[in-house]
Design brief:
The chain is 76% helix and 0% strand. By secondary structure, it is an all-alpha fold.
Protein backbone atom coordinates (compact mmCIF):
# COMPACT_ATOMS: atom_id res chain seq x y z
CA UNK A 1 0.00 0.00 0.00
CA UNK A 2 2.86 2.42 0.80
CA UNK A 3 4.26 1.97 -2.70
CA UNK A 4 0.94 2.87 -4.31
CA UNK A 5 0.61 6.01 -2.20
CA UNK A 6 4.20 7.06 -2.97
CA UNK A 7 3.68 6.44 -6.70
CA UNK A 8 0.51 8.55 -6.62
CA UNK A 9 2.35 11.36 -4.82
CA UNK A 10 5.17 11.14 -7.39
CA UNK A 11 2.67 11.39 -10.25
CA UNK A 12 1.13 14.47 -8.68
CA UNK A 13 4.46 16.05 -7.72
CA UNK A 14 3.21 16.10 -4.12
CA UNK A 15 6.55 16.10 -2.33
CA UNK A 16 5.27 17.25 1.08
CA UNK A 17 2.68 14.49 1.21
CA UNK A 18 5.19 11.99 -0.11
CA UNK A 19 7.65 12.92 2.62
CA UNK A 20 5.05 12.02 5.27
CA UNK A 21 4.62 8.56 3.75
CA UNK A 22 8.39 8.19 3.36
CA UNK A 23 8.96 8.96 7.04
CA UNK A 24 6.43 6.27 7.99
CA UNK A 25 8.25 3.82 5.74
CA UNK A 26 11.59 4.62 7.31
CA UNK A 27 10.13 4.17 10.79
CA UNK A 28 8.66 0.80 9.79
CA UNK A 29 12.03 -0.36 8.41
CA UNK A 30 10.70 -0.99 4.87
CA UNK A 31 13.04 1.51 3.22
CA UNK A 32 15.54 -1.15 2.13
CA UNK A 33 12.94 -3.14 0.14
CA UNK A 34 13.82 -2.75 -3.57
CA UNK A 35 10.27 -1.86 -4.63
CA UNK A 36 9.83 0.64 -1.82
CA UNK A 37 13.29 2.08 -2.43
CA UNK A 38 12.59 2.47 -6.15
CA UNK A 39 9.34 4.26 -5.36
CA UNK A 40 11.16 6.58 -2.97
CA UNK A 41 13.74 7.33 -5.66
CA UNK A 42 10.95 8.04 -8.11
CA UNK A 43 9.07 10.53 -5.95
CA UNK A 44 12.18 12.42 -4.93
CA UNK A 45 13.53 12.51 -8.50
CA UNK A 46 10.21 13.59 -10.04
CA UNK A 47 9.85 16.31 -7.44
CA UNK A 48 13.43 17.52 -8.02
CA UNK A 49 14.71 16.62 -4.56
CA UNK A 50 17.94 15.03 -5.75
CA UNK A 51 19.59 15.25 -2.32
CA UNK A 52 16.89 12.95 -0.94
CA UNK A 53 17.18 10.77 -4.03
CA UNK A 54 20.90 10.27 -3.38
CA UNK A 55 20.27 9.54 0.30
CA UNK A 56 17.84 6.73 -0.58
CA UNK A 57 20.02 5.43 -3.43
CA UNK A 58 23.08 5.18 -1.21
CA UNK A 59 21.13 3.39 1.56
CA UNK A 60 19.84 0.69 -0.78
CA UNK A 61 21.54 -2.69 -0.24
CA UNK A 62 22.12 -2.95 -4.00
CA UNK A 63 21.35 -0.95 -7.11
CA UNK A 64 19.85 -2.45 -10.25
CA UNK A 65 18.98 -1.17 -13.72
CA UNK A 66 15.70 0.28 -12.42
CA UNK A 67 17.29 2.27 -9.61
CA UNK A 68 20.14 3.53 -11.84
CA UNK A 69 17.68 4.51 -14.59
CA UNK A 70 15.46 6.32 -12.08
CA UNK A 71 18.50 8.29 -10.92
CA UNK A 72 19.53 9.14 -14.48
CA UNK A 73 16.01 10.22 -15.47
CA UNK A 74 15.73 12.31 -12.31
CA UNK A 75 18.89 14.14 -13.24
CA UNK A 76 17.71 14.58 -16.84
CA UNK A 77 14.75 16.49 -15.41
CA UNK A 78 17.12 18.62 -13.30
CA UNK A 79 19.64 19.06 -16.13
CA UNK A 80 22.79 17.85 -14.44
CA UNK A 81 25.05 14.87 -13.76
CA UNK A 82 23.14 12.31 -15.86
CA UNK A 83 26.06 11.47 -18.15
CA UNK A 84 28.34 10.90 -15.18
CA UNK A 85 25.75 8.57 -13.64
CA UNK A 86 25.42 6.69 -16.91
CA UNK A 87 29.18 6.07 -16.92
CA UNK A 88 29.10 4.88 -13.30
CA UNK A 89 26.15 2.61 -14.02
CA UNK A 90 28.02 0.83 -16.82
CA UNK A 91 30.64 -0.37 -14.36
CA UNK A 92 28.26 -3.00 -13.01
CA UNK A 93 24.78 -2.74 -14.52
CA UNK A 94 23.71 -3.07 -18.16
CA UNK A 95 21.43 -0.26 -19.37
CA UNK A 96 18.05 -0.91 -20.96
CA UNK A 97 16.12 0.95 -23.64
CA UNK A 98 14.62 3.58 -21.32
CA UNK A 99 18.07 4.26 -19.87
CA UNK A 100 19.43 5.01 -23.34
CA UNK A 101 16.41 7.14 -24.11
CA UNK A 102 17.02 9.25 -20.99
CA UNK A 103 20.73 9.67 -21.67
CA UNK A 104 20.14 10.66 -25.31
CA UNK A 105 17.50 13.17 -24.15
CA UNK A 106 20.05 14.55 -21.71
CA UNK A 107 22.59 14.93 -24.52
CA UNK A 108 19.98 16.79 -26.55
CA UNK A 109 19.06 19.05 -23.64
CA UNK A 110 22.63 20.11 -22.94
CA UNK A 111 23.68 20.03 -26.62
CA UNK A 112 26.56 17.57 -26.41
CA UNK A 113 26.54 15.83 -29.76
CA UNK A 114 29.80 13.91 -29.31
CA UNK A 115 28.57 12.34 -26.08
CA UNK A 116 25.32 11.49 -27.87
CA UNK A 117 27.30 9.82 -30.64
CA UNK A 118 29.20 7.77 -28.05
CA UNK A 119 25.93 6.65 -26.45
CA UNK A 120 24.48 5.79 -29.86
CA UNK A 121 27.60 3.77 -30.71
CA UNK A 122 27.32 1.99 -27.35
CA UNK A 123 23.71 1.09 -28.21
CA UNK A 124 24.79 -0.28 -31.60
CA UNK A 125 27.49 -2.42 -29.99
CA UNK A 126 25.34 -3.69 -27.11
CA UNK A 127 22.80 -6.48 -27.00
CA UNK A 128 20.06 -3.93 -26.35
CA UNK A 129 17.52 -3.91 -29.16
CA UNK A 130 16.87 -0.22 -29.92
CA UNK A 131 13.21 0.62 -30.19
CA UNK A 132 11.29 3.49 -31.77
CA UNK A 133 11.60 5.59 -28.60
CA UNK A 134 15.39 5.27 -28.55
CA UNK A 135 15.40 6.14 -32.26
CA UNK A 136 13.30 9.24 -31.62
CA UNK A 137 15.61 10.26 -28.78
CA UNK A 138 18.66 9.84 -31.05
CA UNK A 139 16.96 11.89 -33.77
CA UNK A 140 16.09 14.60 -31.22
CA UNK A 141 19.66 14.61 -29.94
CA UNK A 142 21.30 15.12 -33.31
CA UNK A 143 18.76 17.66 -34.49
CA UNK A 144 18.83 19.72 -31.27
CA UNK A 145 22.62 19.69 -31.38
CA UNK A 146 22.50 21.28 -34.83
CA UNK A 147 23.51 18.34 -36.99
CA UNK A 148 20.68 18.71 -39.50
CA UNK A 149 22.42 16.67 -42.19
CA UNK A 150 22.75 13.71 -39.82
CA UNK A 151 19.18 14.22 -38.63
CA UNK A 152 17.87 13.99 -42.20
CA UNK A 153 19.96 10.91 -42.86
CA UNK A 154 18.60 9.17 -39.72
CA UNK A 155 15.05 10.29 -40.47
CA UNK A 156 15.18 9.02 -44.05
CA UNK A 157 16.74 5.74 -42.94
CA UNK A 158 14.07 5.09 -40.31
CA UNK A 159 11.08 6.20 -42.38
CA UNK A 160 11.85 3.91 -45.32
Amino acid sequence: MFVQVINRCAGLGALAEGRIVCEQLIQSGCESDVFVGSSLLDIYAKCGSMEDTWRVFNKMPSQNVTTWTTMILGYVNCGQKELELFQQMQQGVLPISITFMGVLNACATISVLEEGRCVHEWINQSDCEPDVFVGKSWLACISKCGSTEDAWRVFNKTSS
